[in-house]
């Protein structure tokens, strides 16, 4: 395997990866900088107390309102739950959803497949190129957060922070794999991308609200159910089995996508 | 070994029968023209030959490899070049970067030489390219690994005339080195210029498979004659004359029936349809040529002796006999009854197929 497609696609993703990393890093810095204010004033205020008791409990959990009392709580409950896992997950699913369908639609796939290269390789290496934004952002973001925390003198548990990012990789890959599957099963690139956004957001809401119902176990279909930043950052609980499950799901989804792409007509 | 073979190759997209039972062979070292109007099914065949899609039924081989055998096709593509109709290149990389990418995938033994011949602006982003520049890049990419067979889907569209000529010359040189070309086109003059044999496809069916020479022979001669005295169109209703038009004669826009049922096989029941536009154009040419006498022009496929003995009965001021343009020959194929409706043999079907055929060309 020469990884030519991966190298090229990865290079194409590099600019976006750097932009994304910068955005996440800035956001992380903003959260760290605001931490003293929020933890000291807002989270302890009477109105906030009242608000969290009045809102439905799943809602409070979904948006991490219960953990605003500490810097790591703020980071885990807001930054890592919403921005990192939800938005980054959606971004990756969206990008992956375009990776095959858009190339087919714009005839780029014809040019690529006129070279002596297997379709299986194309799918696999295009998927692998998602690692460029994932790895870049996973290195830059925690590093900048750690530095910012040291600078404003806020304690953020570094080991947990590193673990969080490591464990988020299977989760993010799984989100990308969902997008990839949509990319080969839906004909239209825009449809695939929109479906990716919709599906990921729906899964997020689903796993937030379903647990309080009788069929709470259904929440396990959502990748977010197997990666919880709060558990890692606040309690130091690492769901390694969940990460393994996400990796397994990724392998299955990529395999199914590959199988489909190898057999489909490219029009 | 034939470079390309197809055997009963059929491709349906749902209800759309894009290719129907195509059987032909492209010999090693020839330039094969694949001719047909837009929507005839040319690209469908090419996509099947490239292994982008599987045939509904039938089979095809490229360089001896079955197009449905994925592993074999990867091997075939080491020796196969492709110039796509729609040039899907990444818009936000430079030509140079994209060429390096392609080189990493399929090798590069002659891009430098090709870039001297066709010189797309390699340092610019492809998104800024004109169609002509994209086409040049596509040609470079198709030939850079020095393939044995090159499949081209309307490769000259977007190229300026000078570059087209350079491209034709390039193909002739490459053919002399033993390369094979499968060349789809709806432009007949280029097929006439560079192809050895032609397959004509219409509505997914292969309607003709000929040497270009034979096709031209069957097309006959275009005869333009200016005679001193006024003549009637009927006077030229001799055997083998089609599409007779007389300058200034309003009726020339109507079909001539002189040849109607006498022609053999493929060309039967045609002759008439294209004459309206064609005849009118010829009339203009003729009348602008000179005011004296009467200009008569027609396509002639009969015995030349008959033609000449007919002509000597007139006082001839000017005479021009040339190969009928392939356009005219081509029009005959598209003037035909749709092969699918032919069996139904209903008058309305025939009438309907006519304008459609014309509109396509």
Automatic annotation (TrEMBL), chain A:
Gene Ontology CC terms: plasma membrane
Transmembrane segments annotated in the record for this chain: 82-101, 127-151, 163-185, 197-217, 237-256
Domain of life, source organism: Archaea
Keywords: Membrane, Transmembrane, Transmembrane helix
GO molecular function terms listed in the Swiss-Prot or TrEMBL record: ABC-type transporter activity
Pfam families for the chain: ABC2_membrane_2 (PF12679)
Protein name: ABC transporter permease
TrEMBL record, chain B:
Keyword flag Transcription regulation: no
Biased composition (Low complexity): 342-361
Keywords: ATP-binding, Nucleotide-binding, Transport
Domain of life: Archaea
Record domain ABC transporter: where: 4-228
Residue ranges with Basic and acidic residues bias: 244-253, 260-271
Listed GO MF terms: ATP binding; ATP hydrolysis activity
Location of the region described as Disordered in the Swiss-Prot/TrEMBL record: 244-295, 340-361
PANTHER family hit by this protein: ABC TRANSPORTER ATP-BINDING PROTEIN ALBC-RELATED (PTHR42939)
Name of the featured protein: ABC transporter
């Amino acid at each position: 395997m020469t990884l030519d497609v991966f190298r090229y696609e990865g290079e194409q993703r590099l600019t976006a990866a750097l932009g994304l990393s910068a955005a996440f890093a800035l956001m992380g810095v903003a959260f760290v900088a605001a931490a003293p204010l929020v933890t000291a004033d807002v989270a302890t205020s009477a109105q906030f107390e009242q608000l969290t008791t009045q809102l439905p409990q799943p809602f409070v959990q979904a948006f991490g309102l219960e953990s605003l009392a500490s810097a790591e709580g703020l980071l885990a409950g807001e930054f890592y739950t919403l921005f990192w896992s939800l938005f980054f997950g959606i971004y990756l699913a969206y990008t992956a959803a375009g990776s095959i369908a858009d190339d087919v639609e714009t005839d780029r796939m014809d040019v690529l497949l006129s070279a002596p290269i297997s379709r299986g390789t194309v799918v696999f290496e295009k998927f692998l190129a998602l690692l460029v934004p994932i790895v870049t952002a996973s290195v830059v973001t925690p590093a900048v957060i750690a530095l910012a925390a040291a600078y404003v003198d806020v304690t953020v548990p570094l080991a947990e922070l590193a673990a969080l990012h490591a464990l988020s990789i299977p989760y993010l890959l799984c989100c990308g794999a969902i997008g990839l599957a949509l990319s080969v099963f839906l004909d239209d690139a825009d449809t695939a991308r929109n479906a990716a956004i919709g599906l990921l957001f729906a899964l997020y809401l689903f796993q937030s609200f379903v647990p309080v119902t009788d069929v709470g176990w259904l929440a396990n279909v959502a990748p977010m159910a197997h990666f919880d930043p709060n558990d890692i950052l606040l309690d130091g609980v690492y769901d390694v089995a969940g990460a393994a499950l996400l990796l397994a799901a990724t392998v299955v989804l990529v395999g199914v996508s590959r199988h489909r792409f190898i057999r489909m007509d490219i029009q | 070994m034939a470079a390309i073979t197809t055997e009963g190759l059929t491709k349906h997209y749902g209800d759309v029968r894009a290719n129907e039972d195509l059987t032909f062979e492209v010999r090693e070292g020839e330039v094969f023209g694949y001719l047909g109007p837009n929507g005839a099914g040319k690209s469908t065949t090419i996509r099947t030959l490239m292994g982008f899609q599987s045939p509904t039924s039938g089979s095809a081989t490229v360089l001896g490899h079955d197009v449905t055998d994925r592993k074999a096709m990867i091997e075939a593509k080491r020796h196969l070049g492709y110039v796509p109709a729609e040039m899907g290149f990444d818009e936000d990389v430079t030509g140079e970067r994209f060429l390096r990418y392609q080189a990493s995938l399929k090798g590069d033994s002659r891009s430098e030489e090709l870039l001297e011949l066709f010189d797309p602006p390699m340092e610019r982003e492809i998104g800024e390219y004109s169609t002509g520049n994209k086409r040049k890049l596509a040609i470079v990419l198709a030939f850079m690994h020095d393939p044995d067979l090159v499949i081209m889907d309307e490769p000259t569209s977007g190229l300026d005339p000078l570059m087209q000529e350079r491209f034709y010359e390039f193909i002739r040189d490459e053919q002399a080195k033993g390369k094979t070309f499968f060349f789809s086109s709806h432009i007949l003059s280029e097929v006439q210029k560079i192809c050895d044999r032609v397959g004509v496809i219409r509505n997914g069916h292969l309607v003709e498979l000929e040497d270009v020479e034979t096709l031209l022979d069957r097309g006959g001669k275009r005869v333009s004659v200016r005679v001193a005295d006024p003549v009637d169109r009927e006077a030229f209703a001799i055997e083998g004359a089609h599409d007779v038009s007389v300058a200034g004669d309003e009726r020339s826009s109507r079909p001539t029936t002189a040849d109607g049922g006498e022609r053999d096989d493929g060309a039967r029941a045609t002759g008439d349809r294209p004459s309206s536009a064609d005849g009118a154009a010829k009339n203009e040419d003729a009348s602008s040529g000179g005011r004296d006498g009467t200009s008569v022009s027609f396509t002639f496929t009969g015995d030349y002796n008959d033609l000449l003995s007919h002509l000597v009965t007139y006082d001839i001021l000017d005479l021009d006999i040339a190969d009928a343009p392939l356009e005219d020959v081509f029009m005959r194929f598209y003037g035909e009854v749709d092969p699918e409706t032919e069996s139904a043999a209903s008058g309305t079907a025939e009438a309907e197929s006519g304008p459609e055929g014309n509109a396509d060309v």
